[in-house]
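Q: Could you fold this chain for me?
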Amino acid sequence: MEFEVLKRNNIKRNVIIVLFIIIIISAVILNYTLAKYRVTDSVPIINSEINYKVPDLNMVSLYIANEEGTYIEADTIPESGYALNKEQSYCGISNNGEIIKDDIVNIVYENGQVNVLGLTKKGTKCYLYFDENTPSYTMTEIIASYNVGNRENFSRPYTSTTTNTVYTTTDWKGTSYYFAGAPTDNWVQFGGFYWRIVRVNGDGSIRLIYNGTSTTTTGTGTLINNGSAQAFNSEYNRSEYVGLKYTSGEQHGQTTNSSILNTLQAWYNSSNLDDYANYIDNTIGFCSDRNMERGSNWSSQPSGEMYYAAWERLYMNKNPSLACSSNDIIKEPVGLITADEVAFAGGVLVIANQSYYLYNNQYYWTMTPDYYNGSEAGVMVMLENGSIGDNGGNVNWDKYNRCVLVCKG
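A: Sure. Below is the predicted structure, expressed as structure tokens.
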């Protein structure tokens, strides 16, 4: 009897030991499994002490531009030969499928490594875009690779194919290099639009004229505001209204915007070009040359006709100039082309030219004062046949607009 009790006690003890061992093993396995999700570490690409669980480490998406400029998803950060596109790259948190950007985060890419500074929120993911490095040249260095010509006869239209050729003259900042005829290499894509380079200014900045959304755009597509025509100035019965900016009763005043300047500024803002303000030059300005022809004195409301200096240069003498007095230089981010710039490009007063790069089969404003006839002020225009027009640009008439801006060189 005592033997049977002892046998039962031994079996009971063995069962308890086995159960205990099973419990210990299960606890160890469970603890190991949970530890996978509890292990935390400082993320090496950030300079903040934010801990992430291992399953949360899908923090970065990488995209590298190919030869066509399309971004392709990548697995590794490029070690060299690329630059971080800071406008495209960002960090943020997903909210119902929408990424809320964190503007405090600063992404730094150096020596093939990325550091994300200022990261403070768990769950943040960064989207990094890399562009291949391209050699950086100043416009002066680029111009040095061109053939440099010198035009002397401006009495007839210039229609030559002038690829890899620029011409030289002087503006109020120094030597200016301009394109003329029908070049194929004065295109620039900037701010989401296509532009033609008119000239490199004497200070090395670049003067561009709007050409729309592609290099093949023609006609109204080369005009701003969807080709809506507009008066240069709603006021027209005083001579000062020829100015891109003007002051009542003054020849060279700049206190009031013309109607056309207000339109240009509004288009500039609505087109988000101010996002590229760091690349736009506001220092050299635009020339609103309000000097008079020789022998003519300025008057706000003369009894007879009077003509401005550009009329004498372009109609009488066929001798355009980029000189400009300081009190006629308008410091704005956008403006219009001058009639003298049109003449340098290949246009001639009242002679058609449909074979140079400024021709677009449209009637658009220049910013060059022309005349005051005793009742109406006039500004020179580009005619539909590609010629420079006078006596057709009364400032209160509706013409089209083709924006000009200056980029830093």
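A (continued): The helical segments are 2-38, 139-143, 259-270, 309-316, 339-345.
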